[in-house]
Amino acid sequence: MFCPKCNNLMIVDRKRKDCLVCRKCGRRVKSKEKVAIKDTILEKKKEIIVMGKDEGVAEFPTTTIMCPKCDNMEAYWWMQQTRAADEPPTIFYRCKKCGFSWRSYG
Asked: What is the pLDDT of residue 87?
């Protein structure tokens, strides 16, 4: 329901479950029915998936970059969004010679 005074969205009054209150102007309106309030806290989980050693890597594009472990100059690469959508994706590399994986933050 929207506030009849300022047209802002009204929320349930936590003290009186049969009232709606406007956050902007404070106007209270009696609700036609009682509303149950359920508080749910969702936990954000960050998950970074790194593929197994031989898991479909051969189909990825290759680039010329030095492996920090064996100094080989060829690696597979792929991009993955590991942070917020407004930040650049992370570029992962896997050495074609030793299989070492590392990442570069764009």
From this structure: 84
- DSSP line for the chain: -B-TTT-PBEEE-SS-TTEEEETTT--EEE-SS--------PPP--------TTSSGGGS-EE----TTT--S-EEEEEE--S-TTSPPEEEEEETTT--EEEEE-
Catalytic residues: 86-87
Structural domains in the chain, sorted by start: 1-40 (no CATH), 57-105 (2.20.25.10)
Residue 8's pLDDT band, with cuts at 50, 70 and 90, is confident
